[in-house]
Design brief:
By secondary structure, this protein is mainly alpha-helical. Helix content is 67%, strand content 0%. The longest helix has 40 residues.
């Protein structure tokens, strides 16, 4: 699988995320121990020194971008959860105690 395909696959899947569980599954699929991006690193040993530098930098950049996008999505879920919790815990200050 080439890098552009991996990137487009990640972007399409993260745009469909509805729950934190979905988000975690995508993180594992792409960045986990046997994830798609992680599995690219062993390919570096088959490349020349110049290609290693370029390909390694590209993989690292992709991993960093995926991590950033996952963190942004996670933050969105946390904000939604906090907002829902605040709405449900609303206290009527005008009510006598």
């Amino acid at each position: 699988m080439n890098l552009e395909t991996i990137l487009s696959k990640f972007n399409s899947q993260i745009s469909l995320v509805k729950t934190r569980q979905d988000l975690e599954e995508i993180r594992i699929k792409f960045l986990g121990k046997k994830g798609i991006v992680t599995e690219l690193f062993p390919q570096l040993k088959n490349l020349s020194a110049e290609e290693k530098k370029s390909f390694g930098a590209t993989i690292n950049q992709m991993r960093d971008e995926f991590t950033k996008n996952l963190e942004v999505k996670k933050s969105e879920f946390e904000t939604i959860e906090i907002d829902e919790k605040l709405r449900s815990e609303k206290i009527d200050l005008t009510e006598p105690t």
